């Protein structure tokens, strides 16, 4: 299906491209001809008075350049979407115009292909319907057009095409059209061009005469014309073709002497020897800058006995004005303006006839120079028909436009291909690296996963200064019972005030619930009234101690140094330390959290040996989240815990870091625990308020089951 679509789109694109290139080119190389056609259209819609000649000429040059360039864009598939849309719009307008031509017939030839190919209005309309359909197909699937040039270099082709077609237009305008498709080309005998071959079909006309009598107008045909009734006064006549017969290539050439009314066509076209015709369809607008050269040719013609006639469609007044400004002495005769415009695309232009055959033509910019006219025409180049240079011109166009374009396309293809090869190599290399990395990271991931699975998951309660001894024992019992009923998926620890430790130790199943103190002294033993040493804690049956809690740092002035000593003693007495760290709200707002946490760890625990480190559990507790109901988001917590793990890795190596349990603490509840614990670096929680109710605490412990 896609193949069919691709074939159809590319066939439509080729049809449109070649048509546009051809029609744009033949019009571009005949800018004056295109201007005359535009003038005809403007006249048909009665707008010619509003559009000056120069604007018509610019429109002619511009339109043909657009058409040609659009054709090249389609051919090379440059800006496929835009070019397709513009083509569709162009064809929609053209089809509408030619429908109007077909229906109303205001202009005989649409001018689509300049003078190169002439179509009837109906043929043009049908041609446009086909092209419109093709442009609909193109617009529907523009990206099916196969590119010939990469996007990077297509602008070069675009600007080069515009430069080429405008140059071709301007050269044709300054000189004469590069190719002459008109019946008055060099080598054409005008009289012969007017001959109708014997037996050729005659055109049948219907002539209508309009006469008036007593204010009444009536139409007559040749058959009922009132020849005998002189009271009918002839007013007007018009002719209509009933049946088109053979029309010779030249059918409208005549020369009349306006003064005498004599038809001079025959005498001039059969004149022996050479005749110069100065053709100026509209003498009022003829370029008079080269009149000196014209006069010189006239003098030369006079000296050598050659004819020299001016032909124009303008009035006597215009002729007189021309004589006044140029001093012209040659006679002027009248010929139809359209015919003169067809004879030569220059106003004025010079045509040389030899016995009625066109020998040469010159734009007023290229008139024969005096030094060339140094002998009779029969002896010099000017009097000879120039050799047909059609092929030379075609080769020149190929060399100047087609070759560079083809070279550009070839270079672009090679460049694209080498780029593609390089990219492919690069891609293959990247793919290989990626596969290696993937394999590595897979291995790393598996390792981390294993480590994480190996790492202890812990939920530790911190009762703080809550519960009497009896209440505490009852709570411990309740927790113990609920965990007995349903085994936890993590280590569970409850940290109680000192006075509870010994009693609570009695009611806990140590295989289910660990016991810890909330503090211990920074002294080993001795006269420290009110203090409880690490050894004493250990002696109650406790296995853990919380150290570095923010409340102790804040209310009891525990410095990094004091905590360092407490940690040392706790470890020395066989306790596991849950070491807390965390920043205040101001510190977080100042984005100093990492710095603060690192300083706390540096100051109290990073002095430990790797062996001692095995008994350390870290707890990150942002102070602004403790007991405030404000939890750090799971992302904030994960980010900090990952950071803590990274600095542990810097200190003790990746492996130790991967084995270190790091907890989050701060308004952790059964409702937010699952999300927090789902983060890869959060290994559990240190729970304050929510550890004082067995059900709440159990809810958090159960988060590890989800
Ligand atoms: C704590 O004090 O360690 C703590 C995390 O408290 P809370 O859970 O009440 O915020």
Give an account of the 3D structure.
The chain is α/β, with parallel strands linked by helices and 706 residues long. The protein has five domains: 2-174, no CATH class; 201-243, no CATH class; 265-386, Glutaredoxin (3-Layer(aba) Sandwich), CATH 3.40.30.10; 392-441; 458-633 and 661-676 and 687-705, TIM Barrel. Helices cover 49% and strands 13% of the residues. It is built from 24 helices and 16 strands. The chain has an eight-stranded parallel barrel, surrounded by six helices. A five-stranded mixed β-sheet has the order 6-5-4-7-8, sandwiched between helices. Helix 14 (498-507) links the parallel strand 10 and strand 11 (513-517). Helix 2 (31-44) packs across helix 3 (53-76), helix 3 (53-76) packs antiparallel against helix 6 (154-174) and helix 4 (80-104) packs antiparallel against helix 5 (121-140). The longest helix is centred in the middle third of the chain and has 65 residues, at 390-454. The relative contact order is 0.06. The model has no long low-confidence stretch (mean pLDDT 94). Bound molecules: phosphoenolpyruvate. Residues 462, 621, 626-627, 665-668, 686-690 line the site of phosphoenolpyruvate.
Which helices and strands appear, and what pairs or packs with what?
Blueprint lengths: L1 H27 L2 H14 L8 H24 L3 H25 L16 H20 L13 H21 L15 H5 L9 E10 L2 E5 L12 E11 L21 H5 L4 E7 L10 H14 L2 E6 L3 H11 L5 E3 L2 H7 L5 E6 L2 E7 L26 H65 L3 E5 L6 H17 L5 E6 L1 H10 L5 E5 L16 H6 L4 E4 L2 H6 L4 H13 L3 E6 L3 H5 L3 H12 L5 H4 L2 E5 L13 H19 L1 H6 L2 E4 L7 H5 L6 E4 L6 H8 L5
Helix pairs in contact: 1-3, 1-5, 2-3, 3-6, 4-5, 6-12, 13-14, 13-24, 19-21
Bound molecules: phosphoenolpyruvate.
Phosphoenolpyruvate (PEP) binds next to β16.
């Amino acid at each position: 299906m896609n193949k069919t679509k691709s074939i159809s789109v590319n066939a439509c694109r080729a049809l449109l491209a070649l048509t546009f290139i051809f029609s744009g080119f033949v019009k571009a190389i005949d800018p004056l001809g295109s201007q005359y056609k535009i003038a005809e259209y403007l006249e048909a819609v009665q707008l010619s008075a509003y559009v000056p000649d120069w604007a018509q000429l610019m429109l002619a040059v511009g339109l043909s350049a657009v058409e040609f360039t659009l054709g090249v864009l389609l051919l090379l598939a440059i800006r496929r979407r835009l070019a397709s849309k513009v083509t569709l719009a162009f064809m929609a307008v053209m089809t509408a115009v030619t429908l109007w031509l077909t229906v109303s017939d205001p202009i005989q030839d649409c001018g689509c292909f300049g003078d190169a190919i002439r179509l009837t209005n109906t043929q043009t309309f049908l041609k446009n319907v086909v092209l419109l359909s093709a442009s609909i197909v193109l617009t529907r699937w523009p990206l099916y057009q196969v590119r010939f040039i990469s996007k990077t270099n297509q602008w070069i082709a675009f600007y080069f095409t515009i430069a080429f077609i405008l140059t071709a237009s301007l050269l044709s305008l300054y000189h004469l059209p590069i190719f002459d498709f008109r019946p008055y080309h060099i080598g054409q005998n005008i009289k012969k061009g007017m001959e109708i071959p014997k037996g050729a079909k005659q055109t049948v006309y219907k002539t209508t005469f309009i006469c008036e009598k007593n204010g009444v107008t009536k139409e007559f045909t040749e058959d009922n014309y009132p020849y005998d009734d002189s009271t009918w006064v002839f007013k007007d006549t018009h002719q209509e073709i009933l049946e088109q017969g053979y029309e010779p290539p030249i059918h409208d050439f005549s020369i009349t002497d306006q003064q005498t009314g004599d038809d001079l066509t025959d005498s001039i076209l059969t004149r022996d020897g050479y005749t110069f015709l100065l053709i100026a369809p509209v003498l009022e607008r003829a370029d008079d800058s080269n009149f000196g050269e014209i006069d010189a040719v006239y003098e030369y013609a006079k000296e050598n006995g050659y004819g020299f006639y001016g032909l124009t469609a303008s009035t006597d007044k215009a002729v007189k004005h021309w004589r006044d400004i140029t001093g012209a002495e040659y006679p002027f005769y009248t010929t139809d303006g359209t015919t003169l415009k067809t004879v030569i695309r220059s106003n004025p232009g010079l045509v040389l006839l030899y016995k009625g055959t066109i020998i040469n033509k010159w734009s007023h910019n290229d008139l024969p120079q005096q030094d060339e006219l140094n002998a009779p025409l029969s002896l010099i180049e000017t009097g000879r028909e120039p050799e047909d240079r059609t092929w030379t011109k075609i080769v020149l166009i190929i060399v100047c436009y087609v070759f560079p374009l083809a070279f550009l396309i070839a270079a672009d293809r090679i460049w694209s291909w080498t780029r593609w090869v390089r990219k492919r190599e690069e891609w293959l290399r990247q793919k290989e690296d990626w596969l290696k990395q993937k394999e590595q990271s897979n291995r790393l991931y598996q390792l981390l996963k294993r480590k994480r699975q190996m790492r202890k998951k812990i939920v530790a309660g911190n009762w703080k200064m809550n519960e009497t001894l009896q209440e505490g024992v009852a709570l411990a019992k309740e927790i113990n019972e609920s965990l007995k009923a349903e085994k936890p998926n993590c280590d569970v620890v409850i940290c109680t005030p000192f006075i509870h430790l010994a009693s609570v130790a009695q009611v806990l199943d140590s295989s289910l619930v660990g016991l810890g103190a909330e503090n211990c002294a920074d002294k080993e033993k001795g006269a420290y009234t009110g203090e409880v040493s690490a050894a004493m804690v250990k002696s109650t049956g406790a296995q853990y101690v919380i150290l570095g809690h923010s409340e102790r740092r804040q209310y009891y002035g525990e410095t990094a140094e004091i905590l360092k000593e407490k940690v040392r003693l706790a470890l020395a007495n066989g306790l596991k330390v849950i070491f807390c760290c965390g920043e205040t709200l101001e510190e977080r707002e100042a984005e100093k959290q990492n710095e603060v946490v690192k300083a706390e760890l540096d100051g109290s625990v990073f002095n430990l040996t790797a062996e001692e480190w095995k008994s350390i559990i870290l707890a990150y507790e942002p102070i602004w989240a403790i007991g405030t109901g404000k939890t750090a988001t799971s992302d904030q917590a994960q980010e900090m815990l990952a950071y803590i793990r990274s600095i542990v890795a810097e200190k003790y190596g990746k492996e130790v870091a991967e084995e270190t349990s790091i907890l989050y603490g701060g308004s952790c509840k059964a409702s937010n625990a699952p999300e927090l614990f789902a983060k890869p670096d959060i290994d559990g929680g240190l729970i304050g308020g929510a550890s004082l109710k067995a059900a709440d605490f159990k809810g958090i412990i159960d988060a590890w089951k989800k």
